[in-house]
Amino acid sequence: MCYVVCSFEPVAPYHVYIVIRPFCGGFCKSWFLLFLDDKALAVRMWTWRNMKIRDMIRAIRASKTAAEERAVVRKECAAIRASISENDPDYRHRNLAKLMFIHMLGYPTHFGQMECLKLIASPGFPEKRIGYLGLMLLLDERQEVLMLVTNSIKQDLNHTNQYIVGLALCALGNICSAEMARDLAPEVERLLQFRDPNIRKKAALCSIRIIKKVPDLAENFVNPVAALLKEKHHGVLITGVQLCSDLCKVSTEALEYFRKKCTDGLVKVLKDVANSPYAPEYDISGITDPFLHIRLLKVLRVLGQGDADASDSMNDILAQVATKTESNKNAGNAILYECVETIMSIEDNGGLRVLAINILGRFLSNRDNNIRYVALNMLMKAIAVDSQAVQRHRATILECVKDSDPSIRKRALDLVYLLINDSNVKPLTKELTEHLEVSDPEFKGDLTAKICSIVEKFSPEKIWYIDQMLKVLSEAGNYVKDEVWHALIVVITNASDLHGYAVRSLYRAVQTAGEQETLVRAAVWCIGEYGEMLVSNVGRLDIEEHLTVTESDALDVVETSIKSHSCDLITRAMCLIALLKLSSRFPSCSQRINDIIGQYKGSFVLELQQRAIEFNSIIERHQNMRSSLAERMPVLDEATFSGRRAGSVPAAVSTSKGVSVNLPNGAAKPSIAPVADLLDLSLDDAPAPSSSGGEFLQDLLGVNLTPVSLQSDTNQGQRSGTDALLDLLSIGTPPAQNSSSTAQMLSSNIDNKSPLDILDRLSTRSAPSAQVSSTGGNSSMLDLLNGLPSSPPMSEGSGAGHSSVTAFESSSLKLTFNWSKQPGNPQTTLIEGSFTNKSQDVFTDFIFQAAVPKFLQLQLDPASGNTLPASGNGSITQKLRVTNSQHGKKSIVMRIRISYKVNNKDVLEEGQINNFPRDL
């Protein structure tokens, strides 16, 4: 049977179709519809207006492209608009049904909103049903047109037909706004006591929406809800329980009421449901109404939380549900999970909690990934309540770390991290490290981060810390962040008796895992610092195997690393520094080292080229300075580094002031807050310490600009942090008589100079008449390596007048300032400080530091000594030069810090001097 369809130009808003179908040797004329228009005469079988919804859906689904679908929708919308404009009541419900389908496809249907209101106002149930359905789909609570339907809904809530009442309640529960809630709450409250259970159920659900929109109306529903909780009909009971739970969340008065009046009743209901016989209308997988089970457990959790009496009353039924519910069905597992969460939320009951955690342990052995995931989530909450009970399932949790599902692996790893403590850190870390060897590449990043954090947090001793970090770096060094190997180096520098062990362990590790770049960096750094210990086996421990390494072998590691194609710029730069240091430690290999460095003098990378040229010059032309430049790094401040990583202290503030920090496997050393603390001046809108150039420099160098104790092979005694700075900058070590001057100059200018200015000041010494030394008239940068000139003595001049003031005084120390002016230079003030010891003990290692605001320039000369006799039998003097750029407008202010030792104990005193005359 065939059809021939011909389409002509549209007449009015419709296309004209002629359908010809052979039938009994002729045409069935009843198929044709003749209509006369003022524009055209056409024959058609049907119009778009009369198309049924099933035909429209069929036409849309038959569209092969999105353009065809849009064309069908566009034609249908045009027909619906025409019907709406003609106010045709016969097809209004059909048009709205089409609009709802078009709306679900994502096309705009706002033009049909008023049709919903017209259908709702119709007297018949079919029209109201379509109207309310369209109201819920096409409108929401933000639409202003919704105010027009409030009166219709109110009338329908009082309708004699319970099905129409149900339609109104359903619509109100979906789109109710705050204004509608206030207007219609009395009708909904009345319907909570309606004779039909379906209406009571829908009224309860509608009440949930109302109290969420207007919490002030909660008290109106308390008594009706208490009656709903006694219902026998499961549908009404489950909605009443949910309404009770929501009322407890929005009203504390309702919570207390239900605790006192309804807890026992809800416990009885749960007991009846749990022990009820088989009921086919409620049975799911052999369990009677698991949805009601879960709702009852949730509301009991709300009532029992924070109330011991309510918790005691539900303990027995919770234990019964936890032990009797079958766990081989999904419905039973859902009930058990809610029961466990309820047990964990109510007040303490140790036996119940152990039972709940054991249930979660069984969940971990389930083959369903979803059940294992929710069990891991719940165990993470339970560990804060009963850690010992969770520890019993440690082996099962570790197996989940090896699971094939990435989400379970990640969650299990987070749980293992929470399980670790001082007693189990070694076995758990061993398990995780062994799994690191076979873990997937995408999981190694998270796993290494957790292992490193565990080792750093719970390390019992430094040798174990070093061993574990070497394992991680050897297995997954490329997945480790830079902070990890930075921390390893800090720990190694603080463990003086493990320097040899560390460098030998790193040497062994890099032989087998040289492709791990972070391992290579740590090894190259340690070989450069402690290369002679590697060769001579200094500090060999009993647990070590004998290792024979020659100077050439140590150089091979560095040379292989610098030439490796996988190493980046940072690693190669570190290799060049290590080679420079090894040239001092291995004099016999100096020529080979020089040849290796010389290969990078023509490097296209400017950083490598500059380092190679400078280091080559040091080896060839400045051998007298090489040993000073290649000295070991000072001991890095472990406490400050850890605090900065954890974010617990500012980057430039030490974790303790004047307190000796005892470090395992290392010597005790004082932790003195850096000079940047002196910058805490709220004057002249000075920049905050966090933005000062000094702190940026300190962050770059990773050391404190304060004196630290450094034990060297030559027993050089104490060295200042400034010497470490000069060593890092490859500038050289200043002469002994100028070290204090350099440190004081740096401390006085760090608050108002950028890092480059500080370097410039180190090189040019901006004191009056200071000259940069040169050789042969050349002023190249390499000439800075010849040392720093000493500061010229300051001439006091015969100023107009001399005056003095007691700048600082404590129970043990007195500081007096005498000042004078230079003729013709009123901005500059010469100050001589005199320190007197008032106590009965001698002060040793005496250091004076000072800082000034931005508008001042401060220069300190070396102190006359570093030992202050007791009882005022002597004094220490120190000269200062202050230049005031705001002379006459602002007076001199100064923050000072004085550190010394009394009976080998560090003492730190601070103060601020504000009593200078304004004319200074």
UniProtKB/TrEMBL annotation:
SUPFAM superfamilies: ARM repeat (SSF48371), Clathrin adaptor appendage domain (SSF49348). Keywords: Cytoplasmic vesicle, Golgi apparatus, Membrane, Protein transport, Transport. The keyword Cell inner membrane does not apply. Its main location: membrane. It is a peripheral membrane protein. The keyword Thylakoid does not apply. Subunit of clathrin-associated adaptor protein complex 1 that plays a role in protein sorting at the trans-Golgi network and early endosomes (TGN/EE). The AP complexes mediate both the recruitment of clathrin to membranes and the recognition of sorting signals within the cytosolic tails of transmembrane cargo molecules. Belongs to the adaptor complexes large subunit family. This is AP-1 complex subunit gamma. It comes from Nicotiana tabacum.
